[in-house]
Amino acid sequence: MTWRKQNSSFFKMIIASAFSLALPFCAIIYPFSAAATTLADADGLLLQAKLKQAEDAYRELLEEDQTGDAYAGLAVALAKQSWPAKLLEAEKLLKKAKEKFSDNPNVIAGAGYVSYVHSKTVASPAKRDLYLEAAEKLCKKAIKENPSIVIAHQTLGMVKIAQDDMDGAVDPLRKATSLAENSVNLTLLAQVLLHLDPHDKEAEEFVNKALQLKSDYGPAHLQKAVVLTNQGKHEEAYMELHNIPDSGRGSDWHLVEGDIYRKQGDGPSALASWGKANSLDPRNPEPYKRKAEYYTNRGDGELAISEYHNALDILPNDFQMRNQLSELALRQDKLEVAESEFKTILAGKPDDPTAMLGLARVGFRKFRKEGSYPADFTQLMDKLQNIVTEQSVQGAVIKNGTRDLQEKIDLSEAEKALTQNRFREANSKFTSIIEKHREEPFELITLGEQCYQEGDYRAAEKAFTYAKDMNEVSTRAEQGMSRINNQRNEAARQVKLGDATWKIPEVAIDHYKQALSADPQYSNAYYGLFSLFTKSDKQDPGQAINYALCFLEASEDANPLRKEVESNLVKLKKKSGPIKGKEN
């Protein structure tokens, strides 16, 4: 039992070294038999990445293995060679080792690593998730039995990275680094910290230390390039990136190259690099996300939606990204896409107020387009009200996300106001949000496009006016203002046609409504309809009152026609009695 315990302790460090280029081998001395030395030799070959030789050495030890460490070492050596046949053999070996050495945490940790490697070879996102979940479970079990197994902590961290749970990756990678401070662990931890905060000083220190330990370690050079480009040192970042030889330039290398090009303002080269990253590893979600963000900022909504879908095929449970897609689809007036994505979020997070607010906004817009709310809309609004109220009482929304959630609430309230033709209230809420973001170029463009889709051209115009003086988005802002002018010109043209066809009221009504289709708050169109239903053969006091109210909401206070409409409205109300408004 003493030999087994010592050898198990030895294996935990050597296996950690094999994956992590860990502790100097000469520092580990064991006064054991030739068999122990032979195991050390096999571990040494694995440490030096001489995988085939390590494989052969471990095979020679299997018959004498009394602990399971040789089985675990062989499984790792096989898995690291990334051949499908050898990966399958590694799994079979571990299954056999589990039967013979079920209480050896090294075997469990090795199984966790093999499961993690297997997750990178399957095309199905569902199978990928199953392998990652198995790896996580095995690593946690190994850690519970022996908290000092470095590879278990390291693999758990890599699993969290693969699951896009960077917060969850920090603790296991910190533990792995504290147990074995080597280039791999330091670089992995730095990668996670930089993802959470692009300017993390501790991450920069870890990268520099990793390069001090191993100056030719490619992944550390990659993260050094990330650090430099985040600091605005794009030329230095580019040079750092090219310290990595061609043989080490994989998907992540091209991802970072694309990021550098993007920050230098070279969009086409960035897209080419991200495309290359995806061609090298179609299962890497990050290049798809980068392209989606780039297309969103460029105003290519259709392409952005497509790239978001590609990324979500790999990370279906990334609710933050799914929410970004939903919001984009809403801005693009892709209501079916937005509705589907918000519902998918709620299927996984039933009480998510942001998704509920998004779904409510879809419902309000559908009402304005189709005249009716989606099924179960009332229940949705009741549940939303209860959740927002409950979270407010508990203080749950008084967090970093408060501003964003409050803005979603304000947007929902604005869209609800639009369904009831309360244009001024809606404009006030839209304008208030725009003012809060008047120094943020991309937020202004987003809000401008949102207000444009909602038909509040005055609010959209305000956002675009602020944005047109900002270099990053000036072109898109000018395009937005041009679209507004075109819509207003079309509305004016249709009103003129309506005014000219009063002798045929049906035709005039159609022209006025086409004007409102072009600009939903075009006051002259409402005035035309009000006048037609008041003075022509098509007199209808009820409709006249509704259009008069819309005119008063849409027109400027200085509009000379307001006095006439207000006067006639009083008379109409006296004749007609109370008019029922639209339901909330």
Radius of gyration: 32 Å
The CATH class of the domain at 1-178 is Mainly Alpha
Largest sheet: none
Question: What is the first-to-last residue Cα distance?
Answer: 76 Å
Structure description:
By secondary structure, the protein is mainly alpha-helical. Among the domains are: 1-178, Alpha Horseshoe (Serine Threonine Protein Phosphatase 5, Tetratricopeptide repeat), CATH 1.25.40; 333-419, no CATH class; 502-576, Serine Threonine Protein Phosphatase 5, Tetratricopeptide repeat, CATH 1.25.40.10. It has 30 helices and no strands. Helix 9 (166-179) runs antiparallel to helix 10 and helix 20 (353-370) packs parallel to helix 22. The longest helix is centred in the C-terminal third of the chain and has 27 residues, at 474-500. It is elongated and about 105 Å long. The model is unreliable at 1-37, 396-402 and 580-584 (pLDDT under 50).
